[in-house]
Amino acid sequence: MDTMDLDFQLVLLRRMADHNPDLVADARRRLGASIADMREANKRWQAMVRSPRSRGAAARYRSVLGEPESVVPRRLGDVDCEARRWALPLWPALRFEVLVGPDGGVWNEWLVRAPDAPAPELRTLEDLTPWSCTVDEAARAFAPARPLEGTAPTRWGLALTAPDRDGVRRQVVAEFTWGLLQRTAVLP
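^ thats the sequence. predicted structure below, dont judge the formating
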């Protein structure tokens, strides 16, 4: 695995560690990386992002991850943009997607399901386990879902209604980091 790929995966894990330290520790071990490696990768990433000579986000992802595995045209309303996707070894069923607008600016950056990977079966609240689904999968499975502002730039939330295992419909807030489900909270 390329050092840049490894570093980038550690950057994604660093933000996820706030919610799921055990899952992150397991993933970090699978990558053969220490906590110190994760901190250093995040430090290098932050320095690159904040550098006065920093490239734009779209160019930064290309320089770190290489050429995208796929570039898919996407139409949002009346605007044409493109979804650039990269495979990451840690999540073979997912792709890191960067949505780039017509001006070259990055509109969104998150993990999405790979086109050839089966979507998870999301029927009940109990199916919403950490790392089980992406934002768009949860929103589709429990429509209508309402987007919520995240607590950081790489975090999103959804307010949705999901039945529990007994069929009782519950109001739920689902929290995502880099587009991957981290936790849910049932509202009273």
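Residues 35-50 form the longest helix (16 residues).
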